[in-house]
Design brief:
The chain has about 525 residues and is an alpha+beta fold. Helices cover about 45% and strands about 10% of the residues. The chain folds into four domains: about 140 residues, no CATH class; about 190 residues, no CATH class; about 100 residues, no CATH class; about 70 residues, no CATH class. A hairpin with a 2-residue loop joins strand 1 and strand 2.
Length: about 525
């Protein structure tokens, strides 16, 4: 098994048994995906999995309809490696190994990590010599670029039918058109995914069309980063000179990928709209270029606006729901966006506040018993401003803005009192205001991470694993545990939040946990990585 996961042995068979459900079987071997796509907005032609090898597709033990594609990244050359070696460096493998699990723990759709193996005897020549192989899985590793191949209409039909039936499992009758439904379902899934990215301040860094998943999964963990000091224009990839994939543009870039998908499928969708049924074998073999263009234009004009509306509505609704959840609000009110969410983000931006620390602190907010208590809470929030940034922030103005926002927030929480639910999920009509605040704190802490996989944590773990693999493995396991349980009160958080909390009675492990939950050194705030693997 270690040899398979490390890319030294191959799972394959020429005589794999057929079955009623899989009559096409009769052998299997590893495969890599071929696709084309746009990179940084420019058509790049044929690409493909240069270092990713899928070794098996298998059903979930208790859910036979759930099929997972198991994939190695960094196991060696593939038919699409071109002049590269197909290997992965240790740092990028650690980043994907930890990053995908951190995203999963936040409830954002993603591929998952299964293992990480260091191949110390294999040399990978980049800036220095290092190597590793990470094992991932997802329901499918199909990307948007699969439909952006050079036109081969019959292959497009076969691929599209497989995606609609086997991957997306669309509820369609035999012979029913599937092209439009495929595009809209992919739109829904990716709108929900990117809404989660925005709500949790996560940046992908390189959202080329070949890095966007048909299933709406977060894939290809390259120069990703969690937000530190909130900056809507932050760029986490230092090779993205123009800021194409900046945090604030991520929904726009997903929309760009969806338009590319629609453009690829438009001739097929147009043919289905004309006939009223699914296209059949060799559906375009006798069609002229003029007819193909006619189908494309008809489908694009008929679907484009609907697709964009679906995306915007789902992305906005999902993001709003997540932001209200992070604030511990139980109901959705039309004014929440303008009265609370946008003003909060504006204050974080203007006052140079840490995105995640601010939300976590707001989880503990209760009605102040005095003006002094309110001032103390506001000071806790503003203590997150770094010494360098303090020179740019008008603290008096910041305190005034926070005081006004918290006063509105207090009233909004009190409006929710009658909608509190007990532990059984029943509406508790007799809940006191104090109990309502306690319930809000409890719920908010479950959605605002105490631990965030920040850039400084990743850089430190990578260096430790590189310098001392045995000791580094234990620290890697600890960070993985924290990343998988980000809402826990790591580092005795209750002691830190108390008035006399000084950390003197903490164990060595608790002190280390608290350090990992810190914002980190100022030099690492907004740290950028590159696309290098």
């Amino acid at each position: 098994m270690i040899d398979v996961l490390g890319g030294r042995a191959v799972l394959m068979s020429q005589d794999y048994p057929k079955s009623e459900s899989r009559p096409e079987r009769g052998g299997f071997a590893p495969w890599s995906h071929r696709y084309s796509g746009h990179q940084f907005g420019t058509w790049a032609g044929q690409l493909g999995d240069g270092r990713a090898v899928s070794i098996l597709a298998t059903s979930h033990p208790s859910k036979s309809n759930d099929v997972y594609e198991l994939q190695l990244k960094g196991a060696g050359r593939t038919p699409y490696s071109r002049s590269a070696d197909g290997l992965a460096v240790l740092r990028s493998s650690i980043r994907e190994y930890l990053g995908s699990e951190a995203i999963a723990a936040l409830g954002i759709p993603t591929t998952r990590s299964l293992s990480l193996i260091s191949l110390s005897s294999v040399e990978v020549r980049r800036e220095r010599m290092e190597t590793a192989c990470v094992f991932t899985h997802g329901h499918s590793m199909a990307f948007f670029g699969g439909g952006q191949q050079k036109p081969h209409w019959e292959s497009l039909r076969i691929l599209g039918e497989w995606v609609s039936k086997k991957v997306l499992r669309l509820d369609l009758q035999e012979g029913q058109p599937w092209g439009k439904e495929l595009v809209l379902e992919v739109t829904r899934r990716n709108a929900k995914m990117v809404a989660g990215w925005q709500a949790y301040g996560w940046m992908h860094g390189v959202m080329n069309t070949d890095n966007v998943s048909i299933l709406g999964l977060t894939v290809d963990y390259g120069p990703f980063a969690f937000m530190d000091v909130f900056d809507p224009a932050h760029i986490c990839n230092h090779t993205d000179d123009g800021g194409r994939y900046a945090y604030k543009y991520q929904p726009t870039m997903i929309m760009f990928a969806l338009r590319a998908l629609l453009n690829s499928l438009a001739p097929l969708i147009g043919a289905e709209m004309e006939s009223g049924k699914a296209v059949s074998s060799d559906w375009a073999s006798s069609a002229s270029n003029e007819k193909i263009d006619e189908w494309r234009q008809h489908a694009t004009s008929a679907i484009k606006d609907e697709m964009e509306t679906v995306f915007q509505e789902i992305c906005s609704t999902e993001n709003g729901a997540l932001m209200r959840k992070r604030l511990g609000l139980r109901r959705s009110l039309p004014t929440d966006e303008s009265r609370f969410i946008q003003p909060l983000l504006t204050m974080m931006d203007n006052h140079r506040l840490d995105f995640h620390r601010t939300f976590r602190l707001l989880s503990f907010f209760k009605p102040p018993s005095s003006d002094n208590d309110n001032a103390k809470f506001i000071q806790q929030l503003l203590d997150n401003v770094s010494p360098i940034d303090r020179q740019m922030v008008n603290m008096d103005s910041a305190r005034k803005e926070w005081d006004e926002w918290l006063a509105r927030f207090k009233g909004r929480i009190e409006e929710d009192q009658m909608f509190c639910k007990d532990d059984a999920g029943n509406v508790a009509s007799a809940v006191s205001l104090d109990d309502a605040y306690e319930l809000r704190v409890k719920e908010a802490k479950k959605t605002n991470p105490r631990f965030v996989l920040r850039q400084w944590v990743l850089e430190e773990i990578i260096k430790r694993v590189e310098s001392d693999p045995e000791k580094g493995k234990r620290q890697l396991a600890k960070v993985m545990h924290m990343a998988c349980s980000p809402f826990e009160a790591w580092g005795a958080e209750w002691e830190e939040m108390s008035e006399d909390g000084n950390g003197e009675g903490l164990s060595v492990e608790e002190k280390e946990e608290r350090r990992y939950c810190d914002i980190g050194e100022g030099s690492m705030l907004g740290f950028q990585c590159s696309c290098s693997s």
